[in-house]
């Protein structure tokens, strides 16, 4: 049974993170790991007022090498028993979730991984429209979509992630997440369906940072009647991303 939503406090804009002066770093770079940790703390304090999970939401864990990723993933929201429990995207207490396993396979040709324990590949930076679990759909099948005001309030967190990581390419996981992202940072809504849009390049800019966006099925949807179309969407997306990252 889903616990009632915590009492929501009125949203107040957070002050932008103050990046540390490069003169304080031996290698002359901003300490992005510390900045990510500070940002995750702010995100967590906000997420606990929105989360609809059965258990308390865990703080997100910092994976330092994620800040070097040229590739970012954006999905709709957290699942019930993965990141909100372990602090790591697509990971439950025993390892990668089924969706995480599929995603890791899709990322392999790009030489990226979603498994933070795998040091043989670069670790992809993954985030969501809302950094909490929105709740189970009343019909009992799937999760509800995040409320429009929650998505609107969460963009500022996402923009700070982009400013810290500065990815070259973003893969938009699922039609709904793709549509919301492109409405705000691209040329407009996703006009074609997910199957038709998969693998296509879309121009976008986040807080002045240009990012090439590519659409694919969310890995949790790649099964059953969407098994074939979902896997085909990833084949096209991977081909496009390979070309973009090779430039």
Detailed description of the structure:
This protein is of the alpha/beta class and 247 residues long. It has a single domain (32-245), classed as Uracil-DNA Glycosylase, subunit E (3-Layer(aba) Sandwich), CATH 3.40.470. It is 33% helix and 16% strand. The chain is built from 7 helices and 9 strands. The protein has helices at 32-47, 83-86, 98-107, 148-165, 175-185, 194-197, 227-245, and strands at residues 71-77, 91-92, 95-96, 112-113, 122-123, 125-130, 169-173, 201-206, 209-216. Helix 1 (32-47) runs antiparallel to helix 4 (148-165). The N and C termini lie far apart (49 Å).
CATH topology: Uracil-DNA Glycosylase, subunit E
Shape: globular
Strand order of the largest sheet: 6-1-7-9-8
Oligomeric organization of the protein chains: single chain
Q: Please identify the top-level CATH class.
A: Alpha Beta
Secondary-structure element sequence?
A: HEHEEHEEEHEHHEEH
Tally of strands? 9
Rg (CA only) = 17 Å
Number of helices: 7
CATH superfamily: Uracil-DNA glycosylase-like domain
Low-confidence stretches: 1-24
Mean pLDDT: 88
- When the domains are counted, the total is 1
N/C terminus separation: 49 Å
């Amino acid at each position: 049974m889903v616990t009632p939503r915590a009492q929501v406090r009125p949203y107040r804009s957070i002050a932008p993170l103050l990046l540390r002066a490069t003169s304080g770093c031996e290698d002359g770079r901003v300490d992005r790991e510390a900045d990510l940790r500070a940002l995750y703390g702010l995100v967590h304090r906000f997420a606990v007022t929105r989360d609809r999970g059965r258990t308390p939401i865990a703080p997100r864990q910092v994976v330092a090498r994620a800040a070097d990723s040229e590739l970012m993933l954006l999905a709709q929201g957290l699942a019930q028993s993965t990141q909100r429990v372990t602090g790591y995207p697509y990971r439950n207490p025993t390892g990668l979730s089924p969706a995480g396993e599929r995603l890791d396979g899709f990322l392999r040709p790009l030489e990226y991984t979603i498994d933070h324990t795998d040091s043989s590949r670069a670790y992809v930076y993954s985030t969501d429209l809302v950094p909490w679990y929105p709740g189970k759909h009343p019909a009992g099948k799937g999760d509800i979509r995040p409320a429009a005001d929650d998505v609107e309030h969460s963009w500022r967190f996402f923009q700070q992630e982009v400013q810290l990581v500065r990815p070259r390419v973003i893969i938009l996981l699922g039609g709904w997440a793709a549509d919301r992202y492109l409405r705000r940072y691209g040329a407009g809504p996703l006009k074609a369906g997910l199957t038709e849009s998969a693998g296509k390049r879309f121009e976008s800019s986040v807080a002045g940072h240009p990012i090439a966006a590519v659409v694919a099925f969310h890995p949790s949807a790649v099964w059953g009647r969407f098994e074939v179309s979902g896997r085909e969407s990833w084949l096209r997306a991977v081909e496009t991303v390979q070309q973009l990252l090779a430039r």
